[in-house]
Write a structure and sequence with these properties.
The chain is an alpha+beta fold. Among the domains are: 20-79, no CATH class; 89-133, no CATH class. Helices cover 52% and strands 18% of the residues. The chain contains seven helices and four strands. α4 (62-88) crosses α5 (117-127). The relative contact order is 0.07.
Length: 158
């Protein structure tokens, strides 16, 4: 929308920009997609907008922002729980199917998965970085008065 000034110059009216593609129905879709691990780049592609537009929506529409945050928090919690299970080991019910002389037998079993050391290391380095990081910072300090030390050495040498 433009208006003409006294000098005949066309000027845009404030707020006369392009209408936003955002609508409140996108909130639920955003939460569902982020629960499935979608990144902001993938969300922008899904909604048919640029990633900058998606970031603007986060600032302009608090419900949209909260939907993204909720979905991402849920996905992160699921991954964290899975990593923890890998780190400590776990057991699940399963079945073993066998066939002998044409007779099929299904036997219930418990499948055991041993703890995974890589998952343990990853967990500990992130949860207790000061204790488990590869690089250890060791502080050395000397609490000595060098003048007094030199004086003592000189006296011993006499």
């Amino acid at each position: 929308m433009a208006e003409e000034t006294e000098a005949g110059i066309k000027r845009r009216k404030p707020g006369g920009g392009r209408k936003s593609k955002y609508n409140p129905d996108m909130d639920k879709a955003a939460e569902t997609l982020t629960r499935q691990g979608y990144t902001d780049e993938q969300l922008a592609d899904f909604f048919g907008v640029d990633e900058r537009t998606l970031n603007n929506w986060k600032n302009q529409f608090p419900l949209f922002f909260n939907s993204l945050k909720t979905g991402k928090d849920i996905a992160d919690s699921q991954v964290e729980a899975s990593l923890f299970q890998r780190a400590i080991g776990y057991s699940i019910p399963d079945v073993y199917v066998s066939s002998y002389e044409g007779v099929v037998t299904i036997t219930s079993i418990i499948k055991h998965f041993a703890p995974d050391t890589t998952a343990q290391i990853f967990w500990l380095k992130n949860r207790q970085p000061k204790k488990w990081r590869d690089k250890q910072d060791i502080e050395h300090s000397v609490d000595a008065n060098l003048t007094a030390l030199f004086k003592e050495i000189n006296e011993i040498g006499r």
